[in-house]
Amino acid sequence: MPESLDTQPVSAEPLWRLGTAYFSRKVTLTAAELGVFTVLADGPLTAEQLRIRLELHPRGVPDFLDALVALDMLERDGDQYRNTPLSDHFLNEKRPSYVGAFLSAADARWDRLADALRTGEPQNRWGAGPQMFTEQYRTTAAWRNFTAGMDYLNGMIGPPVAEAFDWTSVDSVVDVGGARGNLVAALLRRHPHLKAGVFDLPGVEPVFIEHMTQLGIADRVTFHAGDFFTVPMPAADVLILSHVLHDWALQERQALVSRAFDALAPGGRLMVIDPMIDDDRRGTAGALLTSLNMLMVTPHGAEYTAAEARDWLTEAGFTGITAVPIGVHNTLLSGVRPA
Ligand SMILES: C[S@@+](CC[C@H](N)C(=O)[O-])C[C@H]1O[C@@H](n2cnc3c(N)ncnc32)[C@H](O)[C@@H]1O
């Protein structure tokens, strides 16, 4: 159709913002891959010193480093570049909280979104069912990398979960599928009276001990090793399923909720946390995008609405179910096993 001069063409700006969001991610992850933040962790450097250390061509370096300043990943004082607290914590390879490899793996996977949409298959080669995790993370190093990524995600929800509920009446909490204990560490930081535990696969235990030791709370948190589909969940006043249900198919989610019900004493509470999709499926893009990420990494996982989760808890026997937003795009849904 011929375009008319009278018609206002649609603005390209929303698309431009999406395009440059992609550029921003690539600049940041490439800086992590090249070791910019790891080198600068030893102290500030000029652009030329950094260029020589990283063996880069002179042409792109000034724009690259100043783009990182504009993205708040570096600070510049005079001609000296240094890490920001954010990049130093998460993108400096010398720190246990490093997530550069975790984010780069996701970045590479998302290049295959079209394949995932055509086939419905995750873009990794691990099978369905409980072995999905054990196949993938055969070594302590692989668990370390994965659980650092989990810390980066659950680190954003720990403080709000510690405030979202009156923990003073709770004695014990177990985070089921709690990885290396980062979420219960946030709860303990705010509520030191709690007895806390993590229930996860045996392969996680070494990185759990390592992380709890680094945080100075190894003697205050218990690790329960087992497969949550076959081993009964530990008894506690509160059980948490954070970023767990979205990994699994509907039947497996229902089984986990029901197994949590069985483990809780009357009056005990289950907390389910995931980036839940709004009922109308058009609110914020966050949970819809993480749901597509579940398509990329799991055979049957997906995000879900709070209404769906409420049904699973009701079917299992929970009452008093409430849902509150947690952080930017997570929801905490909780229910009580009746007395
Ligand atoms: C997506 S991670 C979530 C970690 C953490 N809860 C969080 O919010 O960051 C899922 C966790 O479930 C654990 N998991 C997976 N399958 C399991 C099984 N069959 N039994 C026990 N834990 C399992 C994984 O090891 C991992 O720590």
Automatic annotation (TrEMBL):
Keywords, comma-separated and alphabetical: Methyltransferase, S-adenosyl-L-methionine, Transferase
Record carries keyword Chloroplast: no
Domain O-methyltransferase dimerisation: 17-92
Stored InterPro entries: COMT-like, COMT_C, COMT_dimerisation, SAM-dependent_MTases_sf, WH-like_DNA-bd_sf, WH_DNA-bd_sf
Catalytic site: H246 (proton acceptor)
Single GO MF annotation: O-methyltransferase activity
UniProt-listed Gene3D superfamilies: Vaccinia Virus protein VP39, Winged helix-like DNA-binding domain superfamily/Winged helix DNA-binding domain
Sequence intervals crossing the membrane: none
Biological processes per GO annotation: methylation
O-methyltransferase C-terminal domain location: 110-318
Pfam families: Dimerisation (PF08100), Methyltransf_2 (PF00891)
Protein name: O-methyltransferase family 2
Species per Swiss-Prot/TrEMBL record: Micromonospora maris
